[in-house]
């Protein structure tokens, strides 16, 4: 395989990886179909209250957790090879959007997608969920 072919494959793979990181942000508004049903209001006076309830539903879709590690690397992918986006310290409360399986960290393959200012992945091994378990991504 020529160097030119390898380079174009690497560029394409990088572009796909970058676009995959943006998908959770684009999908965030329509997990349960609430966005598609909110535009079906027949009474104009109901549209404002529906907008408020949709905003409340969006907040209810986030879960909360507490970092249990001394310092936890939050990454661009659900594995230890992902670029470090930022660090979370012990006791920090984080917002969890969803969970997925990724690289095994001390017997735990689950990773949480966190929404605290940036979209970043944290190992579930070091995040204790407050309340119900997050939904799957």
Describe the structure.
This protein is an alpha+beta fold. The protein has a domain at 63-130: Roll (SH3 type barrels), CATH 2.30.30.40. It is built from three helices and seven strands. The strands form two sheets. The chain has a five-stranded antiparallel beta sheet with strand order 6-5-4-1-7, with no helix packed on it. A hairpin with an 8-residue loop joins strand 2 (71-75) and strand 3. The longest helix is centred in the N-terminal third of the chain and has 25 residues, at 3-27. The two termini are 37 Å apart. The relative contact order is 0.15.
Features:
two-stranded antiparallel sheet; 7 strands; SH3 type barrels; alpha+beta; 137 residues; globular
CATH homologous superfamily designation of the domain at 63-130 = SH3 Domains
Instruction: Give the percentage of residues in beta strands.
Output: 25-35%
The span between the termini is 37 Å
CATH architecture call of the domain at 63-130: Roll
Q: SS-based structural class?
A: alpha+beta
Rg to the nearest angstrom? Answer: 19 Å
State the major sheet: 5 strands, antiparallel
Would you list the SSEs in sequence order as H and E?
Answer: HHHEEEEEEE
State the helix count. Answer: 3
**What is the CATH C level class of the domain at 63-130, in words?**
Mainly Beta
């Amino acid at each position: 395989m020529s160097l030119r072919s390898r380079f174009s494959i690497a560029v394409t793979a990088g572009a796909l990886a970058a676009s995959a990181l943006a998908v959770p942000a684009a999908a965030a508004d329509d997990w349960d179909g609430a966005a598609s049903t909110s535009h079906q209001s027949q009474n104009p006076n109901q549209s404002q209250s529906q907008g408020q309830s949709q905003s409340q539903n969006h907040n209810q879709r986030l879960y909360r957790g507490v970092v249990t590690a001394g310092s936890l690397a939050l990454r661009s992918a659900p594995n230890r090879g992902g670029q470090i986006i930022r660090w979370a310290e012990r006791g920090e409360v984080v917002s969890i959007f969803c969970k997925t399986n990724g690289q095994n960290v001390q017997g735990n393959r689950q990773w949480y997608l966190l929404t605290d200012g940036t979209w970043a992945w944290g190992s579930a091994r070091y995040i204790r969920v407050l309340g119900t378990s997050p939904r799957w991504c």
